[in-house]
Design goal:
The protein is built from 29 helices and 17 strands. The protein is globular. The chain is of the alpha+beta class.
Length: 590
């Protein structure tokens, strides 16, 4: 496959405003000349991702992630460099000048092939729902309260009651059985071939944040099926512990309201949206995970969990609370009256009543505490039971992940709140929380590859790159006295090679430098150097001192090498070297 021209990559980057682009994935807040948001590449509890609209780069000062829009897309969506360029080009309505190759998502399988075959399956299921074959599925969807507009908007479909209907349709389009299996649409037969994974089910396409179909959920239409709902299996496209249903449709409403409502099923998300509650998402057959919480934290300051009013719902709320405390996201818990789910409630009482239910939802800490209090009341006046219940509740607060995210003020407020409800002195509770916290182990974060890349690099080499990335007009002053071979650190030398290439052409600009696959790979190091240079400033004096140090180091090394040679010819070379070095010296920059 042909290499993507750097000029085209640069045009794609120029057509992509990085603040607007990253803002589609995260909630960004303007802070001075830059924008700030929660970093999606580590367990970020306090916004540490900076986005520069001037330099068109991002940088996380906690985990060292950084780069341009291409690097962000590669890391966020776990795709290759060519795939990221193609995706950004499509967003900008630009045609790729060459056909690009992609890294296989699994042995013999490219991720783009998987996306294509899943999209094919969506269109196939959608057509089947509107065919005579799908009449029973369409009738069922309507009987559950879904309008035809909702069915059309969310691309619901029907998987026929056949062992290989989809597989046969895909084969006719030129796809292989191995591709269907890799995409999670089929399962292999013992005697060869494959059979459709979804049969006689109402189909719900699952999308990623970019609006691409990546998986499906299927609702059984036959009472004989043991599993009412099944989802696609884990694939290179689909990770159910991090994906959420309807996030692609609800993201803007979540960002606008700063609130996300989390339910547990497809219909429980679609019916409220149909009734005018647009900031709803659903988990996909799993408990709410830390990755779910981090994703929601990028868009919302508050999350409302909607669970069944039973013991299982209470347990789910408590598990989720630990994750939200760790992320410092406000969380409340709403319970639907017994015997109903969010879809039933909205259909019976309307969207406004559901909004009221959400607005009246208690704080999750209060919700969980009320459950513990109920257990305490049931335990009567037994002192041991009371002590155990208090300790269990405090252990939730001082969970190793959560407690470290709560500042001293918040800990004091929690202790006072709990102390008031339990009629226990707050100071006693704080001391007990500290004791419990000491038992917990703290988690440490491993250094990132970017940090390891620059570790131990000579200061002068770092300073030269820092200056040239921020003040490219000073390139000639460095190039007159040194070249990339003077860099000993591999990462810095790789950057220097591109700086000297671009600088020699009079085109040393950060955006052009990053319009290169190798430089994008080094994006975290480059953005680290840009940020360090901005902090250091004083570019001219820094460059002069650093270049002097590089020249002195090189001269010392060369002189030492010549001194080891025992001949008159070596002495002549030494004298020539010293005269040549004097000629290379230039006046200090004014």
């Amino acid at each position: 496959m042909a290499k993507i021209p750097e000029q085209f990559i640069q045009q794609v980057l120029q057509a992509t405003d990085i603040v607007e682009f990253i803002g589609q994935y995260l909630t960004l807040t303007k802070r001075g000349k830059e924008y700030l948001g929660l970093c999606p590449f580590h367990d970020d509890r306090r916004p540490s991702l900076n986005v520069s609209p001037v330099k068109q780069i991002y940088k996380c000062f906690a985990c060292q992630a950084g780069g341009n829009a291409i690097r962000f897309l590669m890391d966020f969506e776990k795709i290759t460099f060519p795939e990221a360029v193609r995706s950004l080009a499509q967003r900008a309505n630009m045609n790729m000048p060459v056909e690009v190759d992609t890294t296989p998502a699994s042995p013999g399988m490219k991720k783009n092939d998987l996306l294509e075959i899943v999209a094919l399956a969506q269109e196939y299921f959608k057509a089947q729902l509107r065919s005579p074959t799908g009449k029973a599925a369409l009738d069922y969807a309507r009987s559950r309260g879904l309008s035809d507009d909702t069915i059309q908007r969310f691309h619901l479909g029907y998987a026929p009651d056949s062992w290989d209907a989809l597989a046969s349709a895909a084969r006719r389009k030129g796809y292989r059985d191995s591709q269907l299996i890799a995409a999670g649409l089929a399962a292999p037969r013992e005697d060869g071939g494959c059979y459709d994974r979804f049969r006689n089910r109402l189909m719900f396409p699952i999308y990623d944040l970019s609006g691409r179909t990546i998986a499906f959920g299927g609702r059984a239409l036959s009472s004989e099926e043991r599993a009412k709902y099944i989802n696609s299996p884990e694939t290179p496209l689909f990770d159910k512990s991090s994906q959420m249903y309807a996030i692609n449709w609800s993201r803007d409403a979540i960002r606008q309201t700063r609130q996300a409502i989390v339910v547990e099923g497809y219909l429980d998300a679609l019916i409220p949206i149909q009734c005018g509650v647009h900031n709803v998402v659903a988990t996909l057959g799993t408990a709410l995970t830390g990755r779910h919480v981090r994703q929601l934290a990028h868009f919302a300051g508050e999350v409302v969990l909607v669970f069944d009013a039973d013991q299982a719902g209470a347990a789910a709320a408590q598990r989720a609370l630990e994750e939200f405390i760790a992320q410092q996201v406000s969380v409340r818990v709403a319970t639907i009256p017994a015997g109903k789910d969010p879809a039933d409630f909205c259909l019976s009482h309307g969207g406004e009543a559901f909004k009221t239910l959400i607005a009246d939802a208690p704080d999750a800490m209060q919700y969980v505490l009320d459950r513990h209090m109920a257990a305490y009341r049931d335990a009567g006046s037994n002192l041991a039971d009371r002590r155990r219940i208090i300790e269990d509740f405090l252990q939730l607060i001082v969970n190793s992940a959560a407690y470290g995210a709560i500042d001293q003020v918040r800990r004091g407020q929690l202790a006072q709140h709990v102390g008031h409800l339990l009629n226990v002195p707050a100071v006693d509770l704080q001391q007990q929380m500290q004791r419990l916290a000491r038992r917990s182990t703290t988690r440490s974060q491993a250094p990132t590859p970017a940090a390891a890349l620059s570790a131990g690099a000579p200061l002068a080499e770092r300073e030269i790159i820092e200056v040239l990335l921020n003040a490219p007009q000073l390139f000639d002053h460095a190039a007159e006295r040194m070249d990339p071979d003077d860099f000993t650190d591999p990462g810095l030398r790789a950057i220097a090679l591109h700086i000297w290439q671009k600088g020699g052409q009079g085109r040393l600009h950060l955006d052009e430098l990053l319009a290169n696959e190798q430089m994008i790979t080094l994006g975290p190091l480059i953005t680290e150097l840009v940020a360090a240079g901005e902090r250091r400033a004083n570019y001219q004096a820094t460059l002069v001192g650093a270049v002097d140090e590089i020249v002195r180091r090189r001269s010392t090394r060369e002189v030492d090498a010549l001194k080891t040679a025992d001949s008159d010819d070596a002495l002549r070379k030494l004298a020539q070297h010293l005269r040549h070095d004097d000629m290379r010296r230039t006046p200090r920059i004014n």
